[in-house]
Write a structure and sequence with these properties.
The chain is mainly α and 214 residues long. It contains ten helices and no strands. Helices cover 67% and strands 0% of the residues.
């Protein structure tokens, strides 16, 4: 029955807080304006900062919650450490895929930055803080939120191996990293072309423009 944690995590990940928060605060559907991306950055385009913060926290919380619930259940399951480790890996990938391809929203999800952050904090506090610090440093000095997200995604698995050695979870985090990089492919093109918007720089949004990280 512990394997049911994996589809359960996917369902948690499929809850789009951009949609939930927008409905609760009577804001437009996030799919209908700006980049069309259901994430905090697009919600911020409504001018409602509280809604954007709630979206960010909600997306991070679901990643954290799925991992923490799985860890508690697996600790009490009596399974071998190896089996529990692989199930937890499945939970990590499932909740992230739920955000990227949500069952409840036509499989059209966000880019996963906040959810990935929540996952890392659910695995280990130091791991989460180290990865968050990477995002903050890159964002502060280079002023590209997408580049900061990509750097944090790449360093997340590296930090895990440095802290805990090479374990199955390192593979799961590498998968999450690859998926996050894939979702940022338009931002990568813009970074190469020099057209990616910097943090704090206003630009006219449209459904065809490159999206910032949510």
């Amino acid at each position: 029955m512990t394997w049911l944690l994996i589809p359960f995590a996917y369902l948690i990940g499929s809850i789009s807080f951009a949609v939930v928060v927008s409905k609760c605060m009577r804001l437009p559907d996030p799919y209908s304006y700006g980049s069309g991306n259901p994430g905090a950055t697009n919600v911020l385009r409504t001018g409602n900062k509280r809604a954007a913060v709630f979206t960010l926290l909600g997306d991070a919380l679901k990643g954290w919650l799925a991992v923490v619930i799985a860890r508690v259940v697996l600790d009490e399951s009596g399974l071998t450490q190896g089996t529990s480790a692989w199930i937890l890996c499945g939970v990590v990938i499932a909740v992230f895929l739920g955000h990227l391809y949500p069952l409840f929203h036509g499989f059209k999800g966000g880019k996963g930055v906040a959810t990935a952050c929540g996952i890392l904090f659910g695995i280990n506090l130091i791991l989460g803080l180290a990865t968050l610090a990477t995002w903050l440093i890159v964002a502060f000095f280079l002023r590209y939120s997408s580049l900061a997200a990509l750097a944090a995604a790449v360093f997340g698995p590296i930090y895990f191996v440095f802290l805990f050695g090479f374990q199955p979870m390192a593979i799961a985090l590498a998968v999450v990293c690859a998926l996050l990089v894939w979702r940022h492919r338009s931002n990568i093109r813009n970074l190469i072309n020099g057209t990616e918007a910097r943090i704090g720089k206003k630009k006219t949004p449209s459904p065809n423009t490159a999206e910032k990280v949510e």
